Amino acid sequence: MERLKKWMLIGLVSLLIVLTACGNEIEDPLNWEIESFDYMNQDEEMVSLDDLKGKVWMADFVFTNCETVCPPMTYNMTKLNEALVEEGVEDVQFVSFSVDPNVDTPDKIKQFMSGYDLAEADWQFLTGYSQDEIEAFAQQNFKALVRKPDEGTQVDHATWFYLVDQDGKIIKAYQGFQDVPIEEIVNDIKILQKS
Question: Is 2 exposed, middle or buried (0-12, 13-18, 19+ CB in 10 A)?
Answer without folding.
Answer: exposed
